[in-house]
Amino acid sequence: MVVALVALGASVLRPRDVAPGARALEAALWGVALAALVFGLAGPQWVEQEGRVETGRLVVLVDASASMGVRDEGRARSDQVAALLDELREEAGEPLEIFHFDEELRPGLPPDYTGRGTDLAVALDAVADRYLGQELRGIVVLTDGADRGSLRRDLDAAAAAGQLSPTLAPALPGPLTLVQVGDADELFDVAVDEVVSGGYAFLRTPLDLRVRLRGPAGFSTAVTLSREGQKADQVEVSFDENGLAEAIFTITPKKVGRFAWEVSVPVLPNDAVPGNNRFPVVLRVVRERTRVLQVSGSPSYDQKFLRLFLKEDPSVDLVSFFILRTHDDMGAGWRNYEMSLIEFPYERLFTEDLDTFDLVVLQNFNYRPYFSLNAELLLGNIAQYVREGGALVMTGGDRSFDLGAYQGTPIDKVLPVRLGVTGAKSDESPFRPTLTEAGLAHPVTRLGASTETSRQTWAQLPEMDGLNLSRGLAKDAAALAVHPTLRTESGAPMPVIAVSEVGEGRSMALAVDASWRWSFSEAAVGRGNQAYLRFWKNALRWLVADPEDRRVVVAPSRENVLLGDDVRVTLRVRDAGYAPVAAATVAVQVRPPAGPPTEHSLTTDEAGEAVLELTADQRGAWRIEARAGRLAADAAETVFAVNTRDPELIDIQPDGRFLERLAGVLGDRGRHVRPGESVAPLLDEGATRRVRAREEHPLAAVPLVGLIFGIFASLAWWVRRRSGRS
What we know:
By secondary structure, this protein is of the alpha/beta class.
């Protein structure tokens, strides 16, 4: 093309002595050659279109939902699909156009049968859209009829109201044959459908777990309730004529926290879906009311104020003893009606009833006049109660701490202060407690919205009359308030308020017996007795704290999740004074229901928190253990349950009634093929489709185009040479 253009330009810009006719002839010849070349490069085509009429297509829809994988009499329903397709090919005598569906339609056979929902209406609508304007010879659906979409619900509702009519039929481009896969008479499945718990329970309050089950009508089975892997209860149920049953288990939680329960039924060899025979659930146990035992050695203002505070709190269930008979009173020969002192049932309280209390307050109480028999056993029970999750407060007075001869007893081992002071065991000088750095952060002594407000409030509290002395803090205890001048034998400030975590429980020492005076500090300026109330409310809340209010906390985002969900686990670490611990290394062990545990190492941020992201890919109870130190208080654990609430594996009964109703509303364009019947699809032999044929012929490939270019280019060159130009 470049040569032609150059030659054409040369012929136009020739010397003037060339004859005008020769120049014009050469230009014309080059123009024809160039036109032929451009025509060839443009690639024009000659298109021929024609149409032909063919027989309508036969479309097959295969249900790919998980219920098709259920085993009836030892054989999966999906195993019948291949044989049914072969029978259809033999009946129809032509290739089939195959699609599979669950919640949407896709071409070809399903790679597996794991769809999470069957929506036949969506599949039929997709077929109608795909073949819009065409007539189909027929549509065949291979399904168990366990439809989860609107079509089944609408037909069931219309049948119940006696209003089935052709208006409910979907608009289809061909007759519909519904081939039922699976027979309800051959299905055996016992399943735990649901455990209704509400998600939480109250401590020491009976709770009913309602278990809903499904199985063959008239069949009986045992239903077992397990807690933390141990069998707790078992009942026998029988299924009614609708295949439904209910079991009720009554539980009474005795500890707060999260606990894993599981309801299960035996798995028989012919059970269609063994995976739905178990249902794990996690209950979060909380306190409805805090049960407090207050024991005072004698009536006093301190005892009166504390008793009034606890009694008026609607969240507290108080049992109080403060006017008591000693063994000397009972052995003096007096009759009951002659004594105003009440009998103190100390043996029953500190043996049978002790674990029914959340908190024990020993308020200026000397055990010796009452525990003369079995003192070591009874005090040992209290100490063990604390280690196993109970709470203990000892307040000051002339019958407390070393003045009450608690040094060397089991109680000594669970107090946050060390007893055994030599010399004077108390100091009578008035003083005002000083808040420590730990006390500024600790929830017990936080009396204001901010650290500075709390510091100012404590500075304004009235003076105390004196305090019980100690040898200082016990191991791993924290002093929240101290004496401004007195020191222990080691030189540390003398503790006034101290706290510690002992095993799973907590204890607090208040080395004064005049905290009631704090109720007057704000009352004097017209603000009520808020300092006193806030202190004891804080102390009560901390002492009987839930696992979410401990030094190390592990909290999942939800107690019960679905398989495949993401779970966010938050870990919090605080020191003995309850201040956040930044940059703490937390060793986390995640134990799934099956397989080995996984180890994780996390580091807390400035707020003392770290987050672990998990994917719940196994069904059952997951356990998480976290440890930020060597002590029991530095460890925590939690649990959450993963369940499979796949509707495809809850209701797995083949629904022939739905398929029969759908075929019925379609009239003569619908047919229901029951299990065992020959697959004779309903066909419209008159259905046709027009097929358009298109043929394209590239004109540039015609030899004449090249021939024309060659001839005219050669002629143009010959004319140029004859004109005397080279």
